[in-house]
Amino acid sequence: MATKHEQILDYIETLAVGEKISVRRIAKELQVSEGTAYRAIKEAETKRLVSTIERVGTIRIERKKKENIERLTYAEIVNIVEGQVLGGRAGLHKSLTKFVIGAMQLEDMMRYTEAGNLLIVGNRYKAHEYALQAGAAVLVTGGFDASDTVKKLADEYELPVISTSYDTFSVATMIHRAIYDQLIKKEILLIEDILIPLEQTHLLHTKDSIKHYHELNSETTHGGFPVVDETEKLVGIITSRDVIGHRPTELIEKVMTKDPITVSMQTSVAAAGHRMIWEGIDLLPVADNQGKLQGVISRQDVLKAIQTAQRQPQHGETIDDIIKSQIQLQPAEKLTLEFRVTPQMTNSYGSISYGAYTTILTEAAASALKTKNRKDSVLENLAVYFLKPVQLDAVVHIKPNIMDISRKSAKVDVEVLDDKGIVGKALLTFQLLDR
Known about the structure:
Layout (H helix, E strand, L loop, with lengths): L3 H11 L5 E2 L1 H8 L3 H13 L3 E4 L3 E4 L13 H7 L3 E4 L10 E4 L4 H7 L4 E5 L3 H9 L3 E4 L7 H10 L3 E3 L4 H20 L3 H4 L1 E2 L6 E2 L4 H11 L3 E5 L5 E6 H4 L8 H4 L1 E2 L10 H11 L3 E5 L5 E6 H11 L9 H8 L1 E3 L5 E5 L13 H20 L2 E12 L7 E11 L3 E10 L2 E13 L2
Parallel strand pairs: 5-6, 6-7, 7-8, 10-11
Antiparallel strand pairs: 1-3, 2-3, 4-8, 9-15, 11-12, 12-13, 14-15, 16-17, 17-19, 18-21, 19-20, 20-21
Helix pairs in contact: 1-3, 2-3, 6-7, 13-14, 15-16
């Protein structure tokens, strides 16, 4: 039977897109406490089922697929620009396809403005009116208001008119940044992207016997299985190590590992992979906030996903991507990397930031290991024991030296030099991953 929390989420999904909801309404209609309703609405917001806007409330929005994640809704625009909705609240749930900056003559502006667009413009009232008639929403910059006629049209066409105190340039920058962030999120692999769903997951119940484990093990050749109770809530995990020395008639609940490590659907694949490596586990259950099993992932799934993702083009560059793109291999010398410090990598003093510095060290050491044994690696420990400031536009050479390497781990000493000598030294320890 579904919990009250799950019932609220299911109820929210049944609501029509654009419908307004509140904690009090949910609590009253589903006969739950306001605290339970509030927590469920917050989770629905995380899942992009609803959007909460100051002075407007919480509205049901269309859940976006990952391939369309860069398309923003008008509700999201309100939050990004800290705006006020002047009219057309009923259309806040709609997604927009293009932004048009109204920095031209009215006739030219209208040639670029189409249905599903957002016109970003100041106090040009005729432009507001024409944009709505063309099927576009309006974002009024500079803190200006809209006319009563425009507000009435906005309500009639269900197209939002939003006012913000920011200027047009700032608003365009903020929206561009939001889309850019969405593109980066789109490239990050989450557990939900590689999950073995529950209907395809082999599992055992607490009242099953060890004999059932052996039968399932022979059938699937899997070494471990999640264990659930009668409500399908995850209560443990059982592996071959747990059943050694026990009679086939003993119950699973007596020998299983209780309270296993779990991840959620929104956990990144990289974070899950690191957790599996540190804990030495090959199977990781995926559960929701209520502890209900949603599926499993294996170490092989994680490694395959990470290796596949590494071959994909990046649509949105992170700081790490920018740093890595600056590192160039010097073929004339024995595994020496060259790096130029750009403005994005500096601190307030104009020298390279500690975060950028450690990324360079890690990337150089990982490159050395990849050249040596063709294996992927995960950083376990980093000790910087010599560091001098490296200025903007400086070119440095990074020389990684593999000090020790075994089947599962490696130690790399990294030396960083500029034209005057050594500016940094570090010792890094990695765990090596089998493909």
